[in-house]
Inverse folding.
């Protein structure tokens, strides 16, 4: 079974802090994704990566950046956290871009 | 741009009732994929099914069945004899398959349907 592990289940940070959310997958998947999930808005794609050191903007990349130095790890970075970035963040990976995505448990991030 | 509409936001049924979750999509492509995911209270999204645009056969898996109709751009999901463990948020999603590296290869999710099954 594919395992996608997000480093924290719950995280509380302060406005202006630089925040790192880490995601690791163990199935050698090429593609990795970061989403945020908000009530009434569903899942929205922030960034995705189809190879090491490659990244593509999703629907809502503003205020975020990503890093993929190794195939198994995809990091989401909030450069200067703001209260409107309080949300549930979900990481996913897939073998191909139209293959099913496998999701982590999510990180519930609160920015105070 | 592609779009997925899940018009139902919340559904509540009593155990053993059948329930259908609706999904309507919009795309200009002839090649695309449709997905259903389940998100139980624990939070992790679980993949349920993938269907490509050239395969309109309905699928049944145990108590779950899916009805794909290109003529109405719909991909509806029916749970037969619902159980309490079916309580979750269900997402329909669409992926266009014509580009490997472009943003069009990403999944577009609907806003989800919260299903509550009461004992």
């Amino acid at each position: 079974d594919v395992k996608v592990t997000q480093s924290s289940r719950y995280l509380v940070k302060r406005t202006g802090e630089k925040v790192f959310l880490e995601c690791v997958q163990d199935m050698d998947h090429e593609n990795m994704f970061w989403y945020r999930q908000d009530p009434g808005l569903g899942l929205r794609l922030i960034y995705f990566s189809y190879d090491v050191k490659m990244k593509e903007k999703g629907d809502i990349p503003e205020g975020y950046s990503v890093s993929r130095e190794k195939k198994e790890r995809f990091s989401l970075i909030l450069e200067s956290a703001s209260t409107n970035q309080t949300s549930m963040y979900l990481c996913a990976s897939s073998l191909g871009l139209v293959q099913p995505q496998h999701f982590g448990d999510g990180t519930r991030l609160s920015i105070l | 741009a592609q779009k997925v509409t899940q018009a139902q936001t919340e559904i509540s049924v009593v155990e053993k009732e059948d329930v259908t979750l609706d999904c309507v999509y919009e795309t200009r492509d002839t090649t695309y994929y449709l997905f259903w995911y389940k998100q139980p209270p624990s939070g992790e999204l679980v993949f349920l099914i993938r269907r490509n645009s050239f395969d309109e056969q309905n699928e049944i898996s145990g108590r779950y069945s899916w009805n794909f109709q290109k003529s109405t751009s719909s991909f509806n999901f029916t749970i037969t004899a619902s159980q309490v463990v079916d309580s979750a948020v269900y997402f329909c999603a669409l992926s266009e398959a014509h580009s490997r590296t472009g943003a069009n290869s990403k999944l577009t999710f609907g806003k989800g349907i919260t299903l509550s099954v009461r004992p």
About this structure: The mean pLDDT of chain B is 90. Chain B touches chain A through 25 residues (CB under 8 Å). Chain B has no helices and twelve strands. Residues 9 and 31 of chain B are 28 Å apart (CA to CA).
